[in-house]
Amino acid sequence: MEKHQELLIALRKVIRAIGLHSKQLNKTSGLTSPQLLIMLEIDKASGINSSQVAKIVNLSPATVTNILDRLENKALVSRVRDTKDKRKVGLYLTESGKAILVKAPQALQEHFIDNFANLAEWEQSQLLSSVERLADMMNANEIDAAPLLELNAMSASSITNTNPDKKVIS
Fold it and tell me: Model's pTM, two decimal places?
């Protein structure tokens, strides 16, 4: 087998692993990876606002708002307006949200980060360089991406940004 075929097989395995984990997460908790990450951040800092969450999870504020709308519709998150400053809105997990979070599996990127952190510094740098080069070879440099490992079937309603070349994860 030629090297490019071996590389394409390895890429396919990574894509399949992400897809399988996404299905497992959705099946067990009814959540997507971005929803889980946002709920985890709200759990860490109850009362946090949406722009703070957006910064932490490295998603656009519009995308986070869209995800929060979905979580609120599922009664997993509540938005509470500050009584003193009506401009401030805090985010809180509902009891249902807390219960789902307890049962939810670890996000795939958390497992990846743990394993990546155990590599030597030189190996981390080598992997980063290789994958960045791979993204360049696939003309993927201009694709907007958050550090989330999830395959997501995009629907017209889940795309919140106006640049058709940039994809948004919901």
Answer: 0.69
